[in-house]
Prior knowledge:
Elements: H1 3-27, E1 31-38, H2 44-59, E2 64-72, E3 78-85, H3 88-96, H4 98-107, E4 116-120, E5 122-126, E6 139-146, H5 152-166, E7 172-180, E8 183-193, H6 196-204, H7 206-215, E9 224-230
Antiparallel strand pairs: 1-3, 1-4, 2-3, 2-9, 5-7, 6-8, 6-9, 7-8
Helix pairs in contact: 2-4, 5-7
Amino acid sequence: MSDTRWGFVFLLVAALSIFAGPAWAQSAQQQYVVIYVEFKPSDTKAGSRVLADLASHGLNSAGFIRFDVLQQVDRSNFFALFEIWSSAQTYAAYKSSSATQAILAQLAPLLEAPLDERDGNLLEGSVTPRSGHAEARQIFVITHLDIIPTFVDQARPVLNEFVSDSTGDPGVQTFAMLSWTPTTNHFQLIEVFANQQAFDAHVSAQHSVDFRSDLQATIGAPYDERLYQFVNR
């Protein structure tokens, strides 16, 4: 083969590798999971015990990175699970295991609504390790954002800037944005604050006020922000 043809082949392979790169990176991403859990009020205590069993099982499963059970601050029968797995495959294996299915079967009759699961990937920011000694005071915030599909390109830079600006706020321990895998115009903000005062200062900061104003025209549903506290480990 001539030098010219070898050069063409080299350039073609290089170009294809550029396009293949993001797909490979996607397959190697950690799997983030947010699950909303709503118990019948009279079954809250029993439900929280089952969630503790589920967390204990998760902590001993292959591919586990993080498994938090959270209780909503203003609605004691509302919980959330925040999980990180090494890959979508390890999460799928954990979820389909007989042990997981048995625990979920115990959970089902205690619920007032089906589990609402949101699987996604980290887009911006970082999730830091838990601070065990401060859990009693920490505020964990999950915000679901429904962006009008035609405004996603307009909203993404606003979301990215908000995450970047917020990571430096006093008392912020985690601030990250997740995508929801099957619906690319849905996002989740994952935030952890040292205490209620740090959260109050954050939402009052000018960059937070500007963010809410800039985002308002692009959202297709109310800004769904929920405050939680750690209840496991």
